Automatic annotation (TrEMBL):
Name of the molecule in the record: GroES family chaperonin
Keywords annotated in UniProt: Chaperone
The keyword Chaperone appears for this protein: yes
Matches recorded under InterPro entries: Chaperonin_GroES, Chaperonin_GroES_sf, GroES-like_sf
Lineage of the organism: Bacteria, Bacillati, Actinomycetota, Actinomycetes, Micrococcales
Organism name: Promicromonospora alba
Family to which this protein belongs: Belongs to the GroES chaperonin family.
Residue spans of biased composition, Basic and acidic residues class: 1-19
Keyword Signal set for record: no
Superkingdom as given in the UniProt entry: Bacteria
Length: 98
């Protein structure tokens, strides 16, 4: 990876979602723009705040898709990351910092 680039593997997005009230939201329903989660699989030499293996939050509309060995990845700049999820080893829960 070069410069400030990140190669991330997007989490699979199911076609249907469920609301907190239990309603099924079909994939065809148009809603507000949503951010997506992905796992960092490689990083460039100038990336300072994200490490390989961390989960990052990014805008799926602003991305470059890459197909490597039959798997889909997304190429991002470090500045395009909106947040990072950090796993707390003590209790196994996820803490977020933005």
């Amino acid at each position: 990876m070069l410069h400030d680039r990140l190669l991330v593997e997007p989490e699979s997005d199911s076609a249907e979602r469920h609301s907190t009230g239990g309603l099924v939201i079909p994939a065809t329903a148009v809603g507000p723009k949503r951010l997506a989660w992905a796992t960092v699989v490689a990083k460039g030499e100038h990336v300072r705040q994200v490490d390989v293996g961390e989960r990052v939050l990014y805008d799926p509309e602003e991305r470059a898709e890459v197909d490597l060995a039959g798997r889909d990845y997304v190429l991002l700049r470090e500045r395009d990351v909106h947040g990072v999820a950090e796993r707390d080893e003590a209790d196994g829960s996820t803490g977020l910092y933005l």
